[in-house]
Amino acid sequence: MRAAAVALAALAALLAPATPGLAATPQASQHEIEGEVMCPVCGTLLELAEAPQAQRQKAFIAQLISEGRDKEEIKEALVAEYGEGVLALPRGSGFSLSAYLVPIVAFAIAAIALAVGVLRWRRGGEGGDAADRNRPAGPSAEDSARLEADLSRYDL
Amino acid sequence: MSARSFIAFLAVLAVVGLLGFGLLSKGSALEIGDPAPETTLPLLEGEGTESLADYRGQWVLVNFWASWCDPCRDEAPALEELQRRYGDDGFTVLGIDTEDLSDDGREFVARFGLTYPQLHDGDGEAGDAWGTSGVPENFLVDPEGRVRLLFRGAIGEEYLRERVAPLLAGGGS
To answer: How far is B40 from chain A (nearest CA, A)?
Structure first.
């Protein structure tokens, strides 16, 4: 029994260096990949598509999984067949990076514009108060006299 | 120009730019008489690329197809027959396998014994440039590179015999 265990351990030690990637590479998931790539004909996620082209695409993915390819390799193969547009999430490099950067930059510009607008509005409000402060507190003598005259006409 | 006006200008420019990109990235449908797009595509079989420009000076029936498309199977024999009949006389059918797995496309070509040249349009870019809305679609392009006939759907023997063949036989007059 012990000899058999030693033999098995030796066999495992011999095989391990020959296949270093197999233990480290996680098995690609068909469902996960279908949720991250597009059906080019349908314009929807592959997992939602039922068109004949989508069925062939799903079979292609299944075949690559059965060959032991990992997720990134399968995505590369899909890009080679259908172009970059097959990826539901753009890559984080090259021109595709703009898909992530543009919204961030646009949001930053909008936030700055809003902040500048609010500051100007508040300053404008303060400027308006200063103008009011220069104005006399009550009605002028002329206005007071006219008011008195008008009131006296309706005095009962 | 004040900072506020400049920011507003940039925002308007961005919106107009996005709208323009959206319109330009989706080609409009071709009409008869329009110049045919000359998108360069990889060959379906073997290495290298080709474009419609490589066929300038001869009649070309551009056929968009895909292996997963049933009507494409129906029309393939008629197209091959047309190629066999007129292929040596300043004419060729040019197949464009679109949004299809290249292995599936090659299998389709072998199954139907297609002898005319085949290109691969995996991302559908050429289909967009030609304004296709599906497969199959067929465009007869004259030697000057202009669309002379277009047929959306599976092309039949009758159409090829009555509309296409007279143009090829008569030199397009």
So the answer is: 14
Q: Are A40 and A86 within 8 A, CB to CB?
A: yes
On the question of pLDDT at A95 being above 50, the answer is yes
Q: What interhelical angle do A98-134 and B3-25 show, nearest 10?
A: 150
- Residues contacting residue A138 through CB under 8 Å, at least 6 positions apart: A144
Q: What are the residues of chain B with a beta carbon less than 8 Å away from any beta carbon of chain A? A: 3-4, 7, 10-11, 14, 66-70, 99-102, 104, 122-125
CA–CA dist B9, B29 (Å, integer): 33
Angle at CA of residue B53, ends B52 and B59, nearest 5° = 65
Task: Say which of B4, B7, B66 has its CB closest to residue A53.
Answer: B66
User: A86 vs B123: CB contact, 8 Å cut-off?
Assistant: yes
Token pair listed for B32? 């008869």
Residue B147: CB atoms within 10 A of its CB come to 19
Backbone φ/ψ region at B145: left (φ over 0), alpha (ψ -120 to 50), beta: left
Note whether A10 contacts B: Cβ–Cβ < 8 A.
Answer: no
Enter the ipTM: 0.78
CA A141 to chain centre: 66
Give pLDDT tens digits for B76-110. Answer: 999 999 999 999 889 999 999 999 999 999 999 99
Residue-wise pLDDT tens digits, A138-152: 888 899 999 988 888
- A52-66 and A71-82 helices cross at what angle (nearest 10)? 140
Q: ∠ at Cα B70 (B65, B72), nearest 5°?
A: 30
Whether A56 sits inside 8 A of B101 (CB atoms) is yes
- Quote the pTM value: 0.68
Which residue of B101, B106, B133, B137 is the best one to mutate when testing the A interface, meaning the one whose CB has the most A CBs within 10 A? B101
- HSE-up of residue B122 (Cα within 13 Å, Cβ side): 19
